Amino acid sequence: MLIFLTLLNTVIFVFLSLMHIYWAFGGQMGKDAAVPTIDSGEKLFIPSSFGTLIVAAGLLVFALINLFAYVISAGFINIQYIRYGILGVGFVFLLRATGDFNYVGLMKKHKDTVFAKMDTRFYAPLCLSLFLSHLLIFITITS
C-alpha cells in the first residue's frame, strides 16, 4: 500500500505543479475556476506569475517527499524526517480542505460561484483524500 499511495501522491503533485507552471506562463485553461471569487464573480485576489511558480515549486517538493517515502530503504535520509515531512504535507492539505470558513474548503459559506462549486466537487475532496493518504503513509512507515 505504501508504494501505491506514495506514487499516486507523487503523480498528483507533479500534475498539479505542471498546471501551476502552465498558468504562470500565461495558460488560461481552467484558470478562472482556480481562484476564489465573491458572489458577483470578482476574484478575491489576482495570483502573480511568481507566486504561482512558488506554489508549483512547493508541489514539486511535496512530490519529492513522497518519492523519498517510497525509496526509504535506500537510507539517504533519516526515516524520522521523512515521516514528519509526510505528516506535515498531510496537515497542509487538511487545512486546505477545511478552508477559511468563507470562500474556500468544506466549511465555506459562499457556495454559488464557479470556484465554490469546483471546490465542493473536486478541490476540497482531493485535499481531504491527500490528507488521509499522507496519514496512512505516516502510520505505515515504521520508525
TrEMBL record:
UniProt KW keywords: Membrane, Transmembrane, Transmembrane helix
Segments passing through the bilayer: 7-25, 45-69, 81-99, 122-141
Name used for this protein in its record: DUF3995 domain-containing protein
